[in-house]
Amino acid sequence: MCVGKCSRIVGPCLLVLGTLSMTANILLLFPGGASKYLVEGHISKHAKAMPGIWGGGIAVLLAATHITAVGWRCTGCSDCGTRRNAFISAVLSKLALLGAAACFVLSGVGLTNGPLCFYNASEHSHGQGTLWGYPFLDASSPEPDARAENYLYDRHTWSICLEPAGIVAWNVVLFSLLLLISATEMVLASLQILNGCLGCLCGFCEGK
Question: Residue 208: pLDDT above 50?
């Protein structure tokens, strides 16, 4: 596949993925569509870090916009797309790769630690009453892997969170979506880095 044609495929795909990443992260800030938890500060610290916006979103969209523009400029051209454009494409793709990787790591941590919610602390071996916190992170099990397995695979434990309603499922679905999106972005960004390097050597021209 020629360099220009590859750019025309990778660019739009990254545009879609970057938009989806930002959308998923924005939804994490509004559990169940409610804004009061964001106003009150009762949002997971990993959601407030907004990795899907600056990492899987803006960084990827910057690269995607340039890749798409350069790719389509090459359509039917006998002398299109300079080696400078290919170099810029490779550099921006590296930025996108770093952003997507950061999003992947932070989303994984957010998924493992679980949501911030109003829960009944008396169900644990320590504490009494209800409070805001991370019930799955604060669990008494000394083994993080055991806590994660219990939380992610045993839905009966999800009912410990009293508020926001359905926050555990909300957290699991959106952080899992961010993981999937960012992993795909990393693959496409890596492909475009290689594509950009080839463009630096051979140019974008399809008519040659």
Answer: no
Question: Residue 143: enclosing H or E segment and its boundaries?
Answer: none
Q: CA 90 from chain center: how many Å?
A: 21
Question: Can you tell me whether residue 130 is helix, strand or coil?
Answer: strand
Helix (H, G, I), strand (E, B) or coil at 82: coil
- 161 φψ region: left (φ > 0), alpha (ψ -120 to 50), beta (else): beta
Within 8 A by CB and 6+ apart from 40, the residues are: none
Q: What is the pLDDT of residues 26-59, one digit of tens each?
A: 999 999 888 999 999 899 999 999 999 999 999 9
Measured distance between the N- and C-terminal CA atoms of the chain, rounded to whole angstroms: 14
pTM of this prediction?
A: 0.84
CA 110 to each of CA 13, 50, 57: distance values in angstroms, whole numbers, following the listed order: 25, 11, 17
Size of the chain in residues: 208
- Structural tokens at position 78: 């006998």
SS3 61: helix
